[in-house]
Specification:
The chain is an alpha+beta fold and about 190 residues long. It is about 25% helix and about 30% strand.
Amino acid sequence: MRDDDSGTDAVDARLAARLAALRAERGWSLGELAERSGVSRSTLSRAERAETSPTAAVLNRLCAVYGRTMSRLLSEVEAEPALLVRAAEQPVWEDRPAGFVRRSVSPPHAGLRGELVEGRLTAGADIAYDRPPVPGLEQHVWVLEGALEITAQDVEHHLAAGDCLRMRVWGPTRFRCAASEGARYALAVVLP
């Protein structure tokens, strides 16, 4: 997760503490969490000690185990959400190796079921999620720039700028930017 260069370590430390707290709340060992999530014990241990920032795929697996969207988890390490979120205050999380940047435009709020996210994928980025963070999650993907390939329920959808894909997520999904330029999209997420 990236606020800016000066706040990166602090946010990663808060995320690590929150991940450790979620596991402790359930009374699970690292081994039990590894078995439930499919993430290795060593990766979980390093993430909980802030020795490494988890990738989007790892966070997605943990969110599925904990029954949270990624935005909800990331919002739990931020300050209390405000009604108005200025562009400069919108939390940004980055998975550099995967070529993925995620901005929480309207972070989740306890009293609301929807949120808005901006996603950016670099050319060639390919992110596969093996399960939804919350089964039946409603998503609307609106491509703002570039082109995006999304696979959901074994159907591949090719989206160009201006196209919108609406779906409920029950199984694996894949976001791929095969174009020579990157892609930017808006993602509306609504809890079931």
